[in-house]
Write a structure and sequence with these properties.
The chain is mainly α. The protein has 8 helices and no strands. 75% of the residues lie in helices and 0% in strands.
């Protein structure tokens, strides 16, 4: 057989294989496909096994109308029909038995081989994804270890700073209580009691703000948030654009109102002191 004729028959056989993978055959079409195959295998035609590999790959793709199950089921149905013809003594397809059996074996082997390669490829991809996930987790763990190491290295300095600040708070409170005691003692010797009250209020405001400033430093060192809740945690990115006093009133209301009450107290004390100096208060 000439090479051109052999090549043409192989191409027609390839088209038949694709047709068998498009839909399930009806019983009426079994003889028709066997006749077509029988015509191809005349004159000792032998199909090329290597040509089936790209065809099976094409059938296994998801973006086409082919189905590998249709091909397998249709080949099984044609084989069953061929056996039934032989058992009934019908000799029409006797010459087809051997080439058809080889065709089925080669296609089945190619299907199994391709499925195996694809399953191995899928497992390889899964292992690659698992390895990538493991590497990501390892990087995260290394990052946490580095953060913990950095935190441990700075913890001693932070603890010393915090203890120093608390020591300063204790000293400040001690001095404040001492001043308060001295103020109460000096009331009996003062000409105007309002002056003692004024000094006490001013020292109270200074003492409160000093303690708050130290607590603010502690919060910064420990990464804590001492602000009251608001729309956002960052005033600079907030759309309301509050002024300085409004920002303090929203985020630090205890500081704002304590100082406000202290300032009002100073003003009232000054008014009372002036009235006392002018003789309106006996």
């Amino acid at each position: 057989m000439l090479p051109e004729e052999s090549r043409g028959r192989q191409e027609r056989l390839n088209r038949i294989v694709l047709e068998l993978s498009e839909t399930m055959l009806s019983e009426d079409s079994y003889a028709q496909y066997l006749n077509r195959l029988n015509a191809l295998y005349q004159d000792n035609f032998k199909h090329q096994y290597s040509d089936f590999f790209p065809i099976i790959l094409n059938i296994l793709k998801e973006d086409n109308s082919y189905n590998i199950d249709y091909l397998s089921n249709n080949l099984d149905a044609l084989g069953t029909f061929l056996d039934a013809q032989s058992e009934q003594g019908i000799t029409t397809f006797n010459d087809m038995y051997i080439p058809f059996t080889k065709l089925c074996d080669h296609l089945d082997f190619q299907i199994r081989q391709t499925n195996y390669y694809q399953s191995m490829l899928q497992k390889s991809n899964d292992l690659s994804h698992d390895l990538q996930d493991a590497l990501t987790q390892l990087n995260d763990a290394n990052q946490r270890i580095e953060d913990a190491t950095t935190r441990a290295n700075t913890m001693q300095t932070e603890l010393i700073s915090i203890l120093s600040i608390f020591a300063a708070i204790v000293i400040t409170l001690s001095g404040g209580f001492t001043f308060l005691g001295n103020s109460l003692t000096a009331i009996s010797n003062a000409k105007y009691y309002e002056s003692i009250v004024l000094v006490a209020i001013i020292c109270g405001i200074a003492l409160f703000n000093t303690i708050f400033l130290m607590m603010y430093f502690v919060a910064k060192l420990t990464g804590r948030n001492i602000y009251s809740p608001c729309i956002t945690t960052d005033c600079f990115s907030c759309s309301k654009k509050c002024n300085f006093l409004k920002r303090i009133r929203h985020r630090l209301p205890y500081v704002f109102y304590f100082n406000l009450i202290g300032i009002v107290g100073i003003i009232l004390d000054l008014i009372v002191w002036l009235l006392d100096i002018e003789g309106f208060i006996l």
